[in-house]
Each structure stands twice: as C-alpha cells, then as structure tokens.
Amino acid sequence: MEATGKLTNVQLELLKLFQYNLPEAQLKDIKIMLANYFSKAASDEMDKLWDENNWDENTIESWKDEHLRKR
Questions:
Q1: pTM score, two decimals?
Q2: Which residue among 24, 59, 61, 67 is least enclosed by CB atoms within 10 Å?
Q3: Superkingdom, according to UniProt (predicted)?
C-alpha cells in the first residue's frame, strides 16, 4: 500500500474511537475483535480461492516442491 497522505475510511473510523481513553481491558478487546475480523476475512478469501481454483491436498503438496526464485 502506498502512502498518499490521506487517511483511509478505516483510519477515519478508528480515529473516532481515539477520542476516548479506554481502560486496557477494553483496548485489548478491541484489538482482539480487529484481529478476529481480519483473520476471518483472510480465511474467507482463501476459501474462495480454494473453490475457484479447484485446489485440493495434491495442490498443496505440489507447492511444497516448487522452487520460487526471487527477482
């Protein structure tokens, strides 16, 4: 992601929370909620790719043997 100097819609929304001084327990809960949200989003996207590409266990096994070169 490229820094443009403008805040994203997510950053703007989160800034609204920052007007409050939350107890550490609540801050921890918010961090966990955000982590769970993004973890689920990544998992859902992986499931979508898995289905769209008809991947299976053999696909994963073949990836282990691939040699990817860095450029």
A1: 0.63
A2: 67
A3: Bacteria
